[in-house]
């Protein structure tokens, strides 16, 4: 029997019409038994029964994975990023790779705004103080008074820009590949953005060219009391350099939803001026539903185009 794998940590199979369509066509579904991000060996194990399709999470899809998955023809990423997929190896093996760039964009943009406001108004620290019986009169900062530097103007970055403008903040950006720039947003060289922005937020793909884009040199070039937000990919930020900048006071605060190693257990946990969340950017109910439905539709259409299932 032909099969496909869903490797995401969770997935609503019962209420997804495209998954139900695949099951009605006689396909078998294999799900992630670990309920977390899979390792390379674990995804190889799931694919070893000869799956022709994969709805992928953020597990590493490498040449080694493809070498062992001889029947794999379609990968449908449940999400926007493709940095976990060896696209060259996939192309060489005739594997179609699809993604859902639009579906999670609003959810990630709104989380970004939540992180920015939480840091500016010190919501997390105040919450902890009140729970201890204290009543702090802590002074925060207005988003409207800040210059927001957005690195990456794709589906998410453009939304963040518009949301920040709605708060009357000044927005600047850096993206050498930008095809659309919201009105009122200035495009600047990276060095100028780092030196100008009060808040820097990352919304770009991860790859060799962007590995540790924010490193010790970048932190040293930023304004005093800058705030750093990363809801994109963990490898964009040198976490050790960020911790050093926080300890030195060069960066006043940070908020991270993504990390180089997840789950994260590193030293930033001990830092009082960092907000840490568990890679929840796309995990808004409505956005997640849309993303899963799009991913399943992509898989269905991909399998039809390859001739592995019929279009009846």
Structure description:
With 312 residues, the protein is an alpha/beta fold. It folds into two domains: 3-101 and 285-305, 3-Layer(aba) Sandwich (Rossmann fold), CATH 3.40.50.720; 105-276, Rossmann fold (3-Layer(aba) Sandwich). It is 35% helix and 16% strand. The chain is built from eleven helices and twelve strands. It has helices at 17-24, 40-47, 63-68, 87-92, 105-120, 123-131, 155-166, 190-196, 216-221, 239-248, 285-305; strands spanning 3-6, 28-31, 53-56, 74-77, 96-98, 147-151, 170-174, 186-187, 199-202, 226-230, 251-256, 274-276. The strands form two sheets. It has a seven-stranded parallel sheet, sandwiched between helices. A five-stranded parallel sheet has the order 2-1-3-4-5. Helix 1 packs parallel to helix 11 (285-305) and helix 5 (105-120) packs across helix 7 (155-166). The protein is elongated, with a radius of gyration of 21 Å.
């Amino acid at each position: 029997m032909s099969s496909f794998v869903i490797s995401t940590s969770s997935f609503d199979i019962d209420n997804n019409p495209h998954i139900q369509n695949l099951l009605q066509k006689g396909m078998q579904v294999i799900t992630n038994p670990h309920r977390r991000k899979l390792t390379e060996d674990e995804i190889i194990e799931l694919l070893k029964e000869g799956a022709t399709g994969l709805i992928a999470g953020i597990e590493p899809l490498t040449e080694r994975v493809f070498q062992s998955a001889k029947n794999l023809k379609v990968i449908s990423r449940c999400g926007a990023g493709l940095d976990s997929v060896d696209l060259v190896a996939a192309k060489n093996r005739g594997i179609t790779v699809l993604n859902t760039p639009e579906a999670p964009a609003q959810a990630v943009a709104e989380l970004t705004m939540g992180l920015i406001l939480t840091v500016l108004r010190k919501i997390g620290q105040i919450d902890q103080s009140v729970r201890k019986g204290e009543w702090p009169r802590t002074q925060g900062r207005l988003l409207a008074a800040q210059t927001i530097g957005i690195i990456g103007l794709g589906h998410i970055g453009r939304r963040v820009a518009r949301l920040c403008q709605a708060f009357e903040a000044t927005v600047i950006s850096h993206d050498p590949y930008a095809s659309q720039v919201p009105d009122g947003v200035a495009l600047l060289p990276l060095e100028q953005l780092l030196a100008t922005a009060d808040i820097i937020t990352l919304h770009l793909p991860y790859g060799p060219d962007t590995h540790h884009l924010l490193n010790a040199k970048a932190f040293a070039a930023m304004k005093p009391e800058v705030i750093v937000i990363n809801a994109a990919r963990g490898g964009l930020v040198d976490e050790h350099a960020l911790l050093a900048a926080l300890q030195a006071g060069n960066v006043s605060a940070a908020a991270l939803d993504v990390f180089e190693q997840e789950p994260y257990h590193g030293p930033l946990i001990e830092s009082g001026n960092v907000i840490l969340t568990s890679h929840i950017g796309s995990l808004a109910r409505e956005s997640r539903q849309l993303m899963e439905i799009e991913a399943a539709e992509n898989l269905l259409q991909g399998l039809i185009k390859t001739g592995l299932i019929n279009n009846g």
